[in-house]
Design goal:
This protein is an alpha+beta fold. The chain is built from 1 helix and 4 strands. The protein has one domain: Histidine kinase-like ATPase, C-terminal domain (Heat Shock Protein 90, 2-Layer Sandwich). The strands form 2 sheets. The protein has a two-stranded antiparallel sheet with strand order 1-2. Strands 3-4 form a two-stranded antiparallel ribbon.
Length: 62
């Protein structure tokens, strides 16, 4: 998961899945530009992305 937010990185995909590997990178850059964060946690049964943006100049609590 170290490379997950890098541009053009695609994890294990099947040939039928389309994409350029830019979506998470773009999301990460948008979050950073606005003082926010995007994080990922993963387990064998699910992967969760948390996109946090500041509220009134400070990062809102989870």
């Amino acid at each position: 998961m170290d490379r997950l937010f890098q541009p053009f990185f695609r994890g294990e995909v099947q040939s039928s899945q389309q994409g350029l590997g830019l979506g998470l990178h773009i999301s990460s850059e948008i979050a950073k530009a606005h003082g926010g964060t995007i994080a990922v946690t993963s387990s064998p049964v699910q992967t969760r992305f948390t996109f946090r943006m500041p509220l009134n100049g400070t990062l809102a609590p989870v």
